[in-house]
Amino acid sequence: MILTEEYLQNLLDKTLPQIRSVDGCAVVLEGSIAEGFGNSSSDIDFLLVSDGEADLPTMPSLLFVDGRRVEVRTRSVRQIAEQFSAVTTAAADRPGAVAEDLLNRCQRLLRSFPLRNPELVAKVKGMMSFDDFSATARDWWAHAARQSIRHALALRLLGEEQEAASWTEAGLLQAVKSWAADEGETYLEPKWLPEQLNRIGDHPLSARYLTLASLDTSGLDAAEYVTAGARLAADLGVTGAEPGPGRITVTRAGVTTWQTGDRVHVVRDRQDVFVLGDRAARAWRSLVFGRPLEQTLAAADAAGAPQAGPLLAQFLRFGLVRAAWQGDERIVPGLPLAAPAGDVTPPPSTARPVVGMDGATVADAEAIDLVPVPARRFGAAAMTLVWSNVLVENAREDLVGALDREQWSVAQLSARRMLRFALRGVLSSYAVNPLPPDSEVVRRLSLLPGGARLDTIRAQAPHLETLTIASGAQGSAALAELDGFVALVRGATGAERFPSSFDSSDGWRQTLEVGYDWLRLGAHLNADLPLDEAGDLLSSGGAQPHAASA
């Protein structure tokens, strides 16, 4: 230790009166100073051990004593026994399954320095063999290194050399930590690795690691660095991450694919919707799961998405696909004692409107954009957008019929319905869902952002809501104005090609086809259907429920 026992005992005497301690407890010094690595800025870490069954808090108390920062933790003998048992059980099941905080707590206790009640300290340390713990730490670090190196090899195949080199650096640190643990150096915090290697002494593997610890100092390019790193990891005892063709395959993730028109959407965990640009969609549709990564890239090239490696790497980061080693073991890279591993969620797309008739708005051909609303609301808004356009067609039919019969009051009501249904579509295209009442849709346009077409829609809507129809001339003028307004709205919401639903059987068939695509997605996401009858369209597979078979 860098501090004398006398100094530590004195510091402990000043610390104990400031906390609620348990009579007869044992006290140990743990952490970097107990290991002999600390410096003048290091915490003084005291652990109080109660010889009982109490459920003591995990959170430490932070004190400042004689100019030093002092952390005090408490554990009961029962809690320590449970910690050791949990580590042993998890390690027997799978080395990487041991929680890092649990492993860290056990390591710090096993390597601690007793300050009070050494008999009780010996009792709790005797619950786990240090040799057994060293083997567990070795295998735990080796598992992390294996995953990192495998991930680096996958990224190199995908053309992401710099990122592959970064993961190789991480994998090498984990590999040398595994090797050091086998040498008895089990302290987990990576920042003290140089001190651990110094304590091990001169060794060829240490020297090789120090040469390759960083891409910048290795003298190699990124691709060469990955190969050299994988070779050193194997020499450090990390097996199962050797480079070779066909070893990395692409497998399924927890996603579903939905296509509306030509637009491809990928729904992750029923919560997030990603929309793919044209080139990204071609790469996605080319995927055949279970193929080696090399074949996957060749298939994307043949499907019109050449050099698709960066796109596939993005699919991998976002958790839309998985990589596996030799087809059966998923590659899950992580950085112990750092941010937890997991799928990346990018910032929501800023493309507007959010959804059009053909699908979510996409930025460009390479895009893999996160739709900026939850999946369920996206599905509901898309279904409502389609249904709003059906209602516009229905209201227009009513307006034309009323004008033909000179039913001026009916015509005026139908004109207002046509306007409000069109504005339902505008609000739905920006994922406003549930919608405001029809009486408020004109005013609620204020919720939407600025923009040339939206500003024009906002300017025209109040006038159209107050149209008077008391003659044929006024009716014809109103119909022309509303047709122009609907065209403007449909241009702004990507619904330019919406069929004339009630003009012919072919128009109604096209309307059902458009609606069915969105209803399927909405139902998958448990979104509220725009009307009860939509469930019948789902049940019939998109056909009219009473139509006779051909």
Descriptive overview:
The chain is of the alpha+beta class and 550 residues long. The chain has four domains: 5-128, 2-Layer Sandwich (Beta Polymerase, domain 2); 140-235; 248-370, no CATH class; 375-539. It has 20 helices and 14 strands. Helix 6 (130-157) runs antiparallel to helix 7. The longest helix has 30 residues, at 375-404. The relative contact order is 0.07.
SSE layout and pairing:
Elements: H1 5-15, E1 26-30, H2 32-35, E2 44-50, E3 61-65, E4 68-76, H3 77-93, H4 100-110, E5 113-116, H5 118-125, H6 130-157, H7 161-182, H8 193-200, H9 204-212, H10 215-218, H11 222-235, E6 248-251, E7 255-260, E8 263-268, E9 272-276, H12 278-285, H13 293-302, H14 309-317, E10 322-325, E11 329-330, E12 355-356, E13 359-360, E14 368-370, H15 375-404, H16 408-429, H17 452-465, H18 472-492, H19 505-524, H20 534-539
Parallel strand pairs: 2-4
Antiparallel strand pairs: 1-2, 1-5, 3-4, 6-10, 7-8, 8-9, 9-14, 10-11, 12-13
Helix pairs in contact: 3-4, 6-7, 6-11, 7-9, 7-11, 9-11, 15-16, 15-18, 15-19, 16-18, 17-18
